[in-house]
Amino acid sequence: MDFKKLAPEQKQAYLADIERALTSRRLYLKSNFSLADLAEETGIKLHNLSYLINSERGLSFSDYMHLWRIRHFKERLNDYEWKDLTLEKMTAACGFKSRATCWRAFIKLAGQTPSECLKLARGIQSRSNANF
């Protein structure tokens, strides 16, 4: 099947299949989750899956997964279970393989570091900006 010739409705249906596969089992939280794993989950051929994510989302597979992980991070920031976790443990729980990968992804896709995101979400002011 040539994805370049698919009707827009069919592309959207495949994208919905991808998102359903990712959300139903939270596959993006697996740090070793690969394009081949997603192809197996969705039944979409590997090269077609890659083309679809690139053309319709404008992202590489790794950036697409990082975007899902960043969303998860932002959704969980104020959860009670996360209140005592270190930033490193939070990002690992979101599926990031390393600190460097996480920081690069956040800066590229969210325009801020995870620590900046955390501070904004929790209303934390730096000591120099605090009103005494």
Automatic annotation (TrEMBL):
<dbReference type="Pfam" id="PF12833">
    <property type="entry name" value="HTH_18"/>
</dbReference>
<keyword id="KW-0238">DNA-binding</keyword>
<feature type="domain" description="HTH araC/xylS-type">
    <location>
        <begin position="19"/>
        <end position="120"/>
    </location>
</feature>
<dbReference type="InterPro" id="IPR018060">
    <property type="entry name" value="HTH_AraC"/>
</dbReference>
<protein>
    <submittedName>
        <fullName>Helix-turn-helix domain-containing protein</fullName>
    </submittedName>
</protein>
